[in-house]
Design a protein that fits this description.
The chain is of the alpha+beta class. Helices cover about 45% and strands about 15% of the residues.
């Protein structure tokens, strides 16, 4: 019986360390790919094997300094359970309610990345069906049209969680975006391609010419293809993408693993 318990503990510890590694990688990649904003914005991940907290970088640490070991564990009521540092107030007020109220969103990435954030400044911020990448997001996005000021009350996170619902992406009016996923790999893959889609849409809008939208039947067909596409090597494309990005980090910034 003790052997089984030890194996279970070892498995949990391994999963928690891998979660830390993946979240640290996401921070480093966000800097490398132009998604970060100084010491602000927040990338969080529910702690595997636990139901009472999530990982986040301590406030004041630049994302380029984040490592697997310096992430802190924060409870859903704001207490630091493990690690050194404090959690930024709006990070807690946005992320804790979303993690608590929608457990499928294990990873929650909030950024002010420029092209997606540019669209949130528009009266009509919607991603348009003007290309393949854009179509892949059409049924994944919820739009919040209320900017309420700085998120210093958990009630705001609860409101945002309600707007997000079962979607994986939230456009936050006059603010930025939230991108969620069951794993860091899935969330970061969405974050990366969302910014690419927003960038292309902004570029297309800059031309001043009429946008060429894809016909509705083709949009529906393409969305279905995204949902039912092939799996390579028994894992989704997002996992392959994130693994490739981590290999790039292994060559350039291996200290994220510390």
């Amino acid at each position: 019986m003790q052997l089984v318990s030890t194996k279970a503990a070892d498995s949990r510890d391994a999963a928690q360390w891998q979660a830390r590694v993946d979240l640290a990688a996401a921070h480093r990649l966000a800097v490398m790919q132009g998604f970060s904003e100084g010491i602000f914005n927040h990338l969080t991940l529910a702690v595997p094997g636990r139901s009472d907290g999530f990982y986040i970088n301590p406030f004041g640490l630049h994302w380029s300094e984040v490592t697997a070991s310096n992430l802190i564990t924060v409870s859903y009521d704001g207490k630091v359970l493990e690690g050194d540092g404090v959690v930024e107030r709006s990070a807690f007020c946005i992320h804790a309610p979303i993690h608590r109220l929608n457990r499928k969103h294990a990873c929650v990435l909030h950024t002010h990345m420029p092209y997606a954030s540019a669209l949130t400044r528009l009266e009509e911020p919607q991603i348009k069906a003007i290309g393949q990448t854009e179509i892949g997001f059409l049924d994944e996005i919820a739009y919040d049209d209320q900017y309420t000021g700085l998120a210093y009350d958990p009630a705001e996170g609860e409101r945002l969680s309600g707007v997000l619902g079962d979607k994986s992406i939230l456009f936050m009016a006059n603010h930025g975006v939230l991108v969620c996923g069951e794993t860091v790999a899935k969330a970061y893959d969405r974050l990366y391609y969302l910014e690419r889609a927003c960038q292309v849409q902004v570029f297309a809008m800059w031309t001043g010419q009429r946008l060429k939208e894809v016909a509705k039947p083709v949009v529906e067909k393409t969305i279905n293809q995204f949902h039912t596409g092939p799996v390579y090597g028994n894992k989704p494309a997002a996992e392959h993408h994130f693994a490739a990005l981590k290999r790039m980090l292994d060559r350039k910034e291996p200290d994220y693993l510390d």
